[in-house]
């Protein structure tokens, strides 16, 4: 791949363009808002000048509702040898393209499983996709050359290709992305009118649960409008679980011992099922989640403190597998949780204590 055209210079389009440009591909940028394309160009994502002739690959990075019309226009103009989109749903746009009677051999639907709470070109980064799954949904009609171009794109963005059926993909993202986003938003909505004294007690748990609720509502309306059925089915199942959990909690209020026992059993069951589901979430490098030990260190809110603690861990010969930061409410300090292999935890604890760090037991 030597040339590419990216149509849509939001977070995903600009990030992909930056990754391609940084690896020697000449990237052209287009957007319904020319100012946004100019911003992306200024960030090193390519040029906002139109290509003089057909490019190797056209990447359509627009909301799901506009994918089919944007692709159809690009294909009719013959702007590229191959075409793909990066929308978060795959079945609907393809059926819309089929209804338009287009030859879909030069097209493949794709979806990079990566994003951020922020949107727009200013939120883009060339390493957004590194190590992340990038779903490809080829059909029997997909030209081999186009599949190879898509695989090259994934490789240049340093993502991991995953081949799926389009409708299976849509059911999967409803489960792991779309439904969780709505649930996160529902939990966060409880905070909107909560007492300030309650909100001040927010800890890492509520931050984890509500983090994705900070995303752009307009973007999510586009996404959910393109995949409403599977998301509604999942929320219906969650609703049934909620009803059973509410009933179990009410039973715990009963003066009847047998009723309280039923409530305890009900709560235990939902927590057990939660444990069973959580351990299936892939861990580092997509492998089965590992059981890491946590080394918690008190850290002040000063420049260079995180860099210093990582340097000290490296000097101790310990690889930090993951890291979490727990902020202390109302204080210029917090705890850094360093997740390490169990055998390395005592060594790291001793080394950091020797270097003057305050440890939390």
From TrEMBL:
Keyword Oxidoreductase tagged: yes
Domain ACT: 294-361
Metabolic or biological pathway: Amino-acid biosynthesis; L-tyrosine biosynthesis; (4-hydroxyphenyl)pyruvate from prephenate (NAD(+) route): step 1/1
Pfam families tied to this protein: PDH_C (PF20463), PDH_N (PF02153)
Keyword Oxidoreductase: yes
Key words, A-Z: Amino-acid biosynthesis, Aromatic amino acid biosynthesis, NAD, Oxidoreductase, Tyrosine biosynthesis
Record field: catalytic activity: prephenate + NAD(+) = 3-(4-hydroxyphenyl)pyruvate + CO2 + NADH
Enzyme Commission number(s) of this protein: 1.3.1.12
One term of GO molecular function: prephenate dehydrogenase (NAD+) activity
Residue span, Prephenate/arogenate dehydrogenase domain: 2-283
Membrane-traversing stretches: none
Family the UniProt entry places it in: Belongs to the prephenate/arogenate dehydrogenase family.
Protein name: Prephenate dehydrogenase
Protein's organism: Streptomyces aureus
Taxon lineage: Bacteria, Bacillati, Actinomycetota, Actinomycetes, Kitasatosporales
């Amino acid at each position: 791949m030597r040339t590419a055209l990216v149509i849509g210079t939001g977070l995903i389009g600009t990030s992909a363009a930056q990754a391609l440009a940084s690896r020697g591909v000449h990237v052209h940028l287009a957007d319904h808002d020319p100012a946004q394309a100019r911003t992306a160009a200024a960030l090193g994502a390519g040029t906002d000048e139109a290509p003089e002739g057909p490019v190797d690959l056209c990447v359509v990075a627009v909301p799901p509702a506009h994918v089919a019309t944007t692709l159809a226009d690009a294909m009719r103009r013959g702007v590229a040898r191959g075409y793909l989109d990066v929308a978060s749903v795959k079945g609907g746009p393809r059926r819309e393209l089929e209804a338009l009677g287009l030859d879909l051999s030069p097209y493949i639907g794709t979806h990079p499983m990566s994003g951020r709470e922020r949107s727009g070109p200013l939120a883009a980064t060339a390493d957004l996709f590194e190590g992340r799954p990038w779903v490809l949904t080829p059909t029997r009609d997909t030209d081999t050359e186009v599949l190879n171009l898509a695989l090259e794109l994934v490789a240049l963005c340093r993502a991991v290709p995953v081949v799926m059926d389009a409708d299976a993909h849509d059911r999967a993202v409803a489960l792991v992305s779309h439904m969780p986003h709505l649930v996160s938003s529902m939990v966060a909505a409880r905070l909107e009118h909560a007492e300030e004294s309650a909100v001040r007690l927010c800890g890492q748990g509520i931050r984890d649960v509500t983090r994705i609720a900070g995303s752009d509502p307009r973007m999510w309306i586009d996404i959910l409008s393109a995949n409403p059925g599977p998301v509604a089915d999942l929320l219906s199942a969650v609703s049934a679980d909620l009803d059973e959990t509410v009933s179990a909690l009410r039973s715990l209020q009963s003066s009847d011992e047998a009723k309280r026992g039923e409530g305890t059993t009900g709560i235990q069951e939902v927590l057990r099922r939660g444990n069973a589901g959580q351990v299936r979430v892939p861990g580092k490098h997509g492998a089965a989640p590992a059981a890491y030990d946590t080394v918690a260190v008190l850290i002040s809110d000063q420049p260079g403190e995180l860099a210093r603690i990582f340097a000290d861990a490296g000097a101790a010969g310990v690889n930090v597998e993951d890291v979490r930061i727990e902020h202390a409410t109302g204080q210029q300090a917090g705890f850094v949780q360093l997740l390490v292999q169990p055998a390395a935890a005592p060594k790291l604890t001793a080394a950091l204590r020797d270097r003057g760090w305050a440890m939390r037991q």
